[in-house]
Amino acid sequence: MNKMNLGSKFMFATGIENSYPTIQLPDGSIKRVDEMEKCCHYKNWEKDFELTKEQGIEFLRYGPPYYKTHTGPGTYDWDFTDATFNRLKELDITPIVDLLHFGVPDWMGNFQNPEFPELFAEYAGAFAERFPDLQLYTPINEIFITALFSAQYGWWNERLTSDHAFVTALKHLCKANVMAMHAILKVRPDAIFIQSESSEYFHPMRPEVQKQANFLNRKRFLALDLTYGYPISVQMYEYMLQNGMTSGEYYWFEQNQVKARCIMGNDYYATNEHLVLPNGTTEGSGDVFGYYVITHQYYNRYRLPIMHTETNMKMPDSVNWLYRQWANLHRLKQDGVPIVGFTWYSLTHQVDWDTALREDNGRIHEVGLYDLERNITPVGKAYKRLIEQWKDVLAAETFGMVYTH
């Protein structure tokens, strides 16, 4: 076993939404959606950090806007990053560094670019060298969703709609993720990587779509399978080979994985479960199984410590959703699954997530601990109480150590 010292704290966390994919507007023009801008974080970042502290939250999923920071090969603009991360250090808030959240700089193109993994790893190494005291990283957020929305659904970035484009984006994202981990470990050998990955499940509506549901329930694991060097099924191996991955590219992941330094971050929303319809398409099913059942499936596959890295629900249902997610997570921990943290995402309300950022409507998505005027919401009050009630109890249960197999 390998030992990872996380201190004695259970990681109660939130995040500051920093998505920045590019989308196509109805007139055909391309626009980048910068949620930090839409949520007024650039104007309010000092206040946002103070609110995090007031909540009693000691861990923050946070990263610089990658598209603004990596200005060219080997060149960086660290001004905003220096200011924000130095302030987090002053406030004694531990960042879980979110280096890439759904988009890349304009000069890099998109996730079809074969040079992307090396360029991103270079950036990750440069960030670690600039902030060598930081230990917790999410190199690339939600790889599966990034590839799916960008290269199979045609919503973001390259806006492609094929299996070949999906596999290309997926292999590049996973390789970039692993290479970034290696680059960070060269600077910080005790770094810990918390993958924030969407936990999915597909329910067959009728017996004739069981085969399609089985395929999708294998496909949902691909991002973590590659990242962790997990042996995939023959069906998934053939699927990837048929869509542009070589056997050499596949075995690279087995030879380069750093699973021993990883915590599996599971994101769960009401949109994460799907119904497979008789025509083979899917639609949302709501939370049929819930976080407990689906996370147990992921844990049984990878046997890694787990952090619940994202969840939310729109007002007025957010407080009830918080307690339901907490009950699921706490039951998992009682049943012996090594749970190390919980996250309500995000600190403030978001904008345009009702259309998965596909439309630029400016509609407020009321899911935050605070609204966009920085007033606390009912779920903000509830989460603060939950932290106060549970932090010392769970810290004692954690014993300060997480073990990986």
From TrEMBL:
One of its GO terms (biological process) is carbohydrate metabolic process. GO terms for molecular function: hydrolase activity, hydrolyzing O-glycosyl compounds. It holds the Pfam family Glyco_hydro_1. SUPFAM superfamilies: (Trans)glycosidases. This is Beta-glucosidase/6-phospho-beta-glucosidase/beta-galactosidase.
